[in-house]
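Appendix B: a complete holo record

For completeness, this appendix reproduces one full record from the ligand-bound portion of the collection. The bound molecule is pyridoxal-5'-phosphate. The inputs are the chain sequence and the ligand SMILES; the output is the full three-dimensional arrangement of the complex, encoded as structure tokens. No fields have been trimmed.
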Amino acid sequence: MYDHITFEITELIAGIRADALAALTARERARFAAGRPRSRELAEAARAVLLDGVPMHWMLDWGTPFPLFLEAARGAGFTDVDGHHYADFCLGDTGAMFGHSPEPVAAAIRARADRGLTAMLPTADAIAVGRLLQEAFGLPYWQVATTASDANRFALRVARAVTGRPRILVFNGCYHGAVDETFVRLRDGRAVHRPGLLGQAADLTTLARVVEFNDLDALEAALRDGDVAAVITEPALTNIGIVLPEPGFHAGLRALTRRYGTLLLIDETHTISTGYGGYTRTHGLEPDLFVLGKPIAGGLPAAVWGCSAEVATRLRAVRASVDGGHSGMGTTLSANAFTLAAMRANLEAVMTPAAYARMLPLATRLADGIAGVIRARGLPWFITRLGARAEFGFLPTPPRNGTEAAHASIHALEHALHLYLLNRGVLITPFHNMTLVCPDTRSEDVERLVATLGTCLDELLAGGGA
Ligand SMILES: Cc1ncc(COP(=O)(O)O)c(C=O)c1O
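The structure of the chain with pyridoxal-5'-phosphate bound, as generated:
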């Protein structure tokens, strides 16, 4: 009876038609490939010598048909091997948050380059670095590691050593680098391994508890047994999209950790975007242990961890009670002369209050611009800003915890937007639509990003060429 009627069922993905998304993605992938013959050539050559054709497997996660090969980067932009120039809002996912090759860091590297790179001996730069870290973050004692993953691993080891407790606690949706104990998630109220882990030997759920961010009752229940050495957290979650702390959360977190004798490890590796001295200084947090990696040496592999005077005293006491041997902390190239020279220059002349004074208003304009683009098209999406960092996600309101945040991310849509912008000379991070501004970002770049995103959404809403 209804033969003559055809029903068209079109799936909507966060307000965008699935067929429009597929059409736009196919068109943009073709455009990317056609315009980048040299990147394609290098990608083919790389497949013969590098596992899966890249030196580090994340470089395949960009949603492009083949990797984009970098030629040169400076300040807020970079050029690919085919000669295209890009305004860079990804900035090495925070590693280049103060711009590519900032001149004071580049000069320090040049000055150090032929005076010895690594000798397992301290240089005078180390003292200057320690003083600058004290000044910026308030903690009295510092150590240098090669990556934030390492620094977190070492700081957690310190926490277990001084408390004599086995477990740690993380918030659902966290990421702290390649740190075994933190690879847990909350599912149906229980800790489970994070999906995708390879080669896992130990049951991490015996080492880590996991609760939702912003849930102080669950936190207290998890600390009450007195077996948790440390809570490790970013001040706001950023690795599952941004989840901001609710009013009173940090005060509650600090009070509960003190009440149950658990140390508080604040990982500022991404939230350093908040302002000078990171979220910790801006909001007066009082961590026992502190970690910062990525941009700390202007883009060279480096990280630091710091501790309170009390933790330092307890650590010395524990050390005195063991008979030497390897502490399980430290790597040979950490704190070498080359890194310390770059870190000093970065802390003295690049990562300064003046740099933030330039970045924060620009990031506000960027976030307001994107909010306007989303609002004008009536899409059920939110945007959140954390200082120089802004991200938009595919929910009507910002998420309150890791579980909600996981629903705000839709890879197919993220990849399409990322690819469209990339093809028009604007790079944003290919996951949870992360954008960062650096001191060199120009207001024209911000306007271009906002306008290009608007055009992309108009094309998607018009069918994406489907
Ligand atoms: C909050 C946080 N901590 C630590 C890390 C690990 O940094 P790396 O990969 O440089 O070791 C990351 C990486 O994204 C991070 O976001």
